[in-house]
Amino acid sequence: MTEQLHGTEVYNATIWLGPGKWLHEASLVFSEDGVIRAIGDAHGEHRCSQRIDANGRTLLPAFGEGHAHPQHAGLREQFAPVAMARNIEEILRNLGEYAHHHPEQEWIQGWGYDPSLAPNGQFDARWIDTIIADRPVMLRATDYHTVWCNTRALELGGVDRVTEQPQDGEIVRRQDGSPLGTLREWGATRYILDIVPLPTLTQRTDALAWASAQFLEGGITWVQDAWVEGDELAAYLALANGGLTVRYNLGLRADPKRYREQVGEFRNVHDQIEQLNDPFLTARTVKIFADGVLEAGTAAVLEPYHDCPHSQGIPNWSPEELTDAVVRFDQAGLQVHIHAIGDRAIRMALDAIETAQRSNPTWDRRPTIAHSQLIDPIDLDRFGSLGVIANFEPLWAQLDPLQTELTFPRIGDERANRQYPIASLLRRGAHLSFGSDWPVSDFHPLAGIGVAVTRQNSDGEPAMGWQPDERLSLDEALSTYTVGTAYQAFADQTRGTIAVGQIADLVLLDSDLSDIDPSQLGAVRVMKTFLGGREVFSRE
Question: Please, which residues have CB within 8 angstroms of residue 237's CB and are 6 or more apart in sequence?
Answer without folding.
Answer: 273
